[in-house]
Amino acid sequence: TELGVERRFVPESCPRAVRPGDFVRYHYLGSFPDGTRFDSSYDRGSTFNVFVGKGQLIAGMDQALVGMCVNERRFVKIPPKLAYGSEGVPGVIPPNAVLHFDVLLIDLWNSEDEVQVQTYFKPEKCPRTVQVSDFVRYHYNGTFLDGTLFDSSHNRMRTYDTYVGIGWLIPGMDQGLLGMCVGEKRIITIPPFLAYGEDGDGKEIPGQASLVFDVVLLDLHNPKDGIAIENQLVPESCERRSQTGDFLRYHYNGTLLDGTLFDSSYSRNRTYDTYVGKGYVIAGMDEGLLGVCTGEKRRIIIPPHLGYGEEGRGKIPGSAVLVFDIHVVDFHNPSDSVSITVHYKPSNCTVLSKKGDYLKYHYNASLLDGTLLDSTHSLGKTYNIVLGSGQVVLGMDMGLQDMCVGERRTVVIPPHLGYGEDGVEGEVPGSAVLVFDIELLELVSGLPEGYMFVWNGEVSPNLFEEIDQNHDGEVLLEEFSEYIQTQVETGKGKLAPGFDFEKIVKNMFTNQDRDGNGKVTAEEFKLKDQEAKEEHDEL
User: Locate the EF-hand domain: which residues (predicted)?
Assistant: First the structure.
C-alpha cells in the first residue's frame, strides 16, 4: 500500500540530486510483481525525458525520483493509489495493479542552471586569458553526465580550432572557454538549452542531454595580435643593432605555446643563417630579428597570421602560435668593410706596412660571440706573410695595412672578405664574421710592385757577360741562380722577402727565356726598365 524505494547502486560521487522542478533523463524497466514486463525504455532505444514534480509522471514515480544521483539505480514499488489506480491503462496495466520499476538515472538539469566550470589545473604563469573574438586550439573529451564518451579530439589526434564568443560554438562552450590560460585544464558542464537543446545534434548527442567537456587549452591568439618580444639577455655592450638587409646567424628553439618542441638549430649543431627584413623567413621572424645585438637572447612569440597560417607546416599545426627562443651569434651587412680598432701604437711609428712587405705577427682569432677559433700564441710561433700577395683572406690583407711594428689592433672581417658562405669545414662556420686581435712583431720592407729582385746600386753595363760565366753566349738556370744568390749575399741585390728563393729565381729566369728553350741569350736578356721602354716605344 506504500511506496517502496530500494537503492541498489549509489555512485561514490553525487554532486547533485534530483529535486522537484528538475528535468531528468532515465532508463527503466517496468514490470508487475510476478515479473511480467509491461514497458521498457531500453526497448525503444531512448531515455525517458521529463520534469520531476510537475505532474508529468504518476505520483509514485514523481516521489521515487527525488534525491536520485546520476548513475544511481533504484528499484521502485508503486501501489495503485500512486500509479494508475482502479482504472489502470486499458490493454497495458490492469486495475489496482502494483507496479515495479528498475530505474537508472542518466541525466539531470534545471532550467535555471548555468554553465559550470571546474578548473583542476592552472599554470603558475598565466600572462593572457581567453577573451571574446580570440582564436583557440584545444583538446577535449566530450561525455554525458553518466560518463559515456560521445566525442574526443584526442582520438582524432587533432585539436579543435575555433573563434570564441562569435557563435562558432554552442553557447555553453563559448562561455566555458572564457578566461582560460594556455595549459589550463578544466571541466565544463553545459545544460542542454546551452548546448544542442531538445533535438540533439542528430548524431551522437540525444535531445535534452547535458554535456561535459574535459578541456585542455593549447593555444590562444587574436587576429589583431602582432609579435611579442621578451628580452631575456641583452649584452651590456651593444655597439650595433640589426637592421633590414643585415645577414644574421642565430640559434633557436622553436616551440608551440604549450611547450611542444617542433624544431631546434642546436639539434643540428648549426646556426640558422638568413637575411632580415627581406622575406627569407616568416613575417613574424623578419620583424622579431630587427634591433638585436650580437650575443642577445630573446623570445619571439608569433601569431599564426605572421607564421605558418591556417595550414601550418611539417610538425607545426595549422593556426599555431609559435615561440622562438633565439640567441644571436653574429650579423653583418653585405656593404660592410673591414673594421679596425687600434689599441696600442708606438710613439716612433714611422715605417708603416704596405703591399709587398714581409710581416710577422701574433693573433687570436675568434667569432663575434667570443668563440676562439685559432691562436698563434698556443702554437708558440708567429704567422708570416707577404702583405697583399693573397696568402691570407682579403679582409686580413686590408686589416694589416698601415701598421707599425709593436702596434696592437683588432680587425673585424665580414664573411664576404673572409671565408664566405662556405667557411672552412670543421674550423670556421659559413657566413661567419671573424675577429682578429693582432700584434705586429716584425716588418721587412718589400720591393716595388711588380718586382721580385732589385739592385741596391748601379747595374753593371756588362750584366749578361757577368752572368754567362763560361762565355758561351747562353745562360742556363744554374748559372742564373748562382749569380743572383751571389748578388743577394754580397748586398748588391735584394729579393722580394717572404718568398721561396728557388721559385723566385726560376720565375725570373722563365721571364727571360722568351722562347722557352731553357736557355737565355743576349738577345732575349732585358732588364725590367728596358722592357717597359720597348713596350712604350712600340705603342
Answer: 455-490, 500-535
CATH number corresponding to 453-529? 1.10.238.10
Please report the pLDDT score of residue 532 as a whole number.
54
Instruction: Point out the catalytic residue in the list 22, 26, 78, 101.
Output: 101
Dist. CA 206–CA 345, nearest whole Å: 89
Residue 509 is among the residues annotated as catalytic for this protein: no
Summarised one tens digit per residue, pLDDT across range 230-275 is 987 999 888 899 999 999 999 999 999 999 999 999 999 999 999 9
Could you tell me which CATH number the domain at 339-444 has? 3.10.50.40
Domain 228-332: CATH class, spelled out: alpha beta
Secondary structure string (H, E, C) spanning 25-90: EEEEEEECCCCCEEEEHHHHCCCEEEECCCCCCCHHHHHHHCCCECCCEEEEEECHHHCCCCCCEC
For residues 273 and 248, give the distance between their C-alpha atoms in angstroms, rounded to a whole number.
6
Query: Alpha helices of 443-494 — where are they, by DSSP H?
Result: 463-467, 477-489
Note the pLDDT of residue 497: 82
Residues of the chain with pLDDT under 70: 528-539
84: annotated active-site residue: yes
Name the average pLDDT for the chain: 92
Helix, coil or strand: residue 488: helix
User: Hey, what's the torsion of the CAs at 303, 307, 312, 317, to 10 degrees?
Assistant: -40
User: Which triple of cell numbers denotes residue 21?
Assistant: 522542478
Per-residue model confidence (pLDDT) at position 423: 93
Catalytic residue among 48, 51, 58, 525: 58
Beta-bridge partner residues of 248: 274, 331
Catalytic: 39? Answer: yes
Nearest CA-CA partner of 30 in 90, 83, 106: 83
Is 28 one of the annotated active-site residues of the chain?
A: yes
Per-residue cell: 38: 509491461
Q: What CATH code is assigned to 116-221? A: 3.10.50.40
Of all residues in the chain, what percent are helix, strand and coil, respectively (each to 5)? Answer: 20, 35, 50
Fold annotation for 4-109: Chitinase A; domain 3 (3.10.50)
**Domain-by-domain residue ranges, the chain?**
4-109, 116-221, 228-332, 339-444, 453-529
Burial bucket for residue 228 (CB in 10 Å: 0-12, 13-18, 19+): middle
Residue 231 has a pLDDT of: 81
Please compute Rg for the chain using Cα positions: 46
State pLDDT tens for residues 89-122: 999 999 999 999 999 999 999 999 999 999 999 9
Q: Considering the candidates 22, 23, 26, 28, report the single residue annotated as catalytic.
A: 28
* pLDDT in the model for residue 83: 95
In this predicted structure, what is the pLDDT of residue 15?
93
Catalytic residue among 23, 26, 84, 324: 84
Calpha distance 181→121 (Å, rounded)? 10
CA 409, CA 76: separation in Å to the nearest integer?
99
Q: How many CB atoms lie within 10 A of CB 67?
A: 14
Q: Exactly one of 38, 163, 193, 453 is catalytic; name it.
A: 38
Q: How far apart are CA 539 and CA 531, in angstroms?
A: 12
